[in-house]
Amino acid sequence: MLITFGVLAAFFMLIVLVLHKTKHGRSVSSFSSYAVGERSFSSWFVSMAYTNSWWPGSTFTAVFGFAVISGVIGLYFLVYSTLGVLAMYFIARPVWKWGKQFDLRTQSDLLSLRYNSPGLKLLSSAISVVALLPWLILGLIAMGAVIQWASLGNLSFEVSILIGIAVLVVRQFWTVQMGMRGLIVTDMVQGIVAYIGSAVLCLGLLIFYFGGFSNLEQLTTAQLSLPGYGSESGEWFYFGIVASGIIGSLCWPMIFTRIYTAGSVREVKKGSLQAMVIGFVFFVLLMAVALCAAPMSLASADPLSAFFALTQDAGGTWLLAFALLIVFAASMGFVDGVTQSLGTQVANDIVGVIRPLSDKQELYLAKGSMAGAAIIAAVIANQIYGWSNLAGVAQLAYQAIIQLAVPIFGGLIWRRGNKDGAIAGLLIGTVIALVLTIPYMDTGGAVPWLGGFGAGLVGLIVNLIVYILVSFIRRSSDAELARVDGLFRAARVRTEMLEDASVSTDAKSVPSQEPA
């Protein structure tokens, strides 16, 4: 226990020291500064922030365990994450430029600007908050697992969760004080440990512990194949989870916030490519270890803890401490990011729409919302820890979040899409997704009588059809079309011109918004 907790404590103190040095001489002067960190970060900071958003601590518990049980199907996380990060490269220009020019702080701010609708802002943010909660739960479960393993089994999971929350509460002091700047700076440190450290560890395990890939010969036929026609999961199951992953990965509110924190469009694009390389290398090595471990009884007996059991067996307490440090770093950064995003959305996009708030009120409300979300997630995490299909919890979140793809990317591609179509499609699509998901919670929203096709994808298709039809039937006014054309012209302005121009970021620079 002294070794494991000592390593974690030393790293935590390092994070606190980095935050203290970063905070010195700086203060959060406005809610915008709190939410997007003054839009000043380079590509490497952006890439590590992206990576920490895509690969949380639950990657080493729920996802690793899923690969141990199910085999090569676990690689679907790699497919959708790689393509998702690549897609961020292509939407960087309009998103970053509108964010800078109109002082956008959240994903829902972008929708409100594009469609001139505070009602859509509130609706989209409410969906985001609901979809983020399962990921916060998984993050707390990963943190609880770290503490429990660090105690070498001397602490129960319930106590471990409470200790993990206490650690995060201490960490949240800095998040509350510094906002997004603190998160981005520490994401760099945590990312180096979590993802570069993981790649080194996994490479060492493959070479010195497994001695190559000979264990793969012991995998069953089911573990080496993808579900197809006649399979228990259904012929459309694999397509459904990959499609939901790719589409959903583009809709998480943390990703848009990361775009806003960059210093320029160029930094966003470079950061996207760098994150794609980092994520690909680390996850391929991690999945190789998971597949090699799958035939081993120590992994199959408790897949959720297989990563820790494996490293302890390979190198004793010190190697276990290193594995715990990796998951601790990934969990702390991700949970911080999710709670900060939840707090910002509640203050800026939900309550702020219903009742205008001052910067000070928004800051207080954001902090209170962060605490409330952590408490709710901790209670649920304590109830579902030990589920055999925790990866299905993540899949459930995707059934909801992918509904935002229609108004987001429809609005970035099709200028005639309007608020009536966006709101109608979003409402109908989300209701359909929820109605179909609830009976099939244990399958992650995969609908058996549709061949395993995801409930969220069914809702998404209806969402898109309604969006197009309503936008055609209830056409935008000429004034609204001219306003949207102006937004797209602004996005084509060269980045250097926008940065050099003295563009006001005051709220008055946002075009006046009509009631929903």
SSE layout and pairings?
Blueprint lengths: L1 H22 L7 H6 L6 H12 L7 H9 L5 H26 L5 H9 L2 H33 L6 H22 L1 H30 L27 H13 L3 H9 L3 H29 L3 H4 L5 H49 L4 H26 L6 H11 L3 H9 L5 H19 L8 E2 L5 E2 H19 L4 H15 L2 H6 L16
What report would you give on this structure?
- It contains 21 helices and 2 strands.
- Helix content is 73%, strand content 1%.
- It is an all-alpha fold.
- Residues 494-516 have low confidence and may be disordered.
- The longest helix has 49 residues, at 306-354.
- The protein has a two-stranded antiparallel ribbon.
- Strand 1 and strand 2 form a beta hairpin.
- Helix 7 (118-150) runs parallel beside helix 18, helix 8 (157-178) packs across helix 14 (306-354) and helix 14 runs antiparallel to helix 15 (359-384).
Keywords:
mainly alpha, 516 residues, 1% strand, globular, two-stranded antiparallel sheet
Alpha-beta content class:
mainly alpha
Mean pLDDT: 82
N-to-C span:
57 Å
The H/E string reads: HHHHHHHHHHHHHHHHHHEEHHH
Helical content (DSSP H or I, runs of 4+):
over 70%
Give a nutshell description of this structure.
By secondary structure, the chain is mainly α.
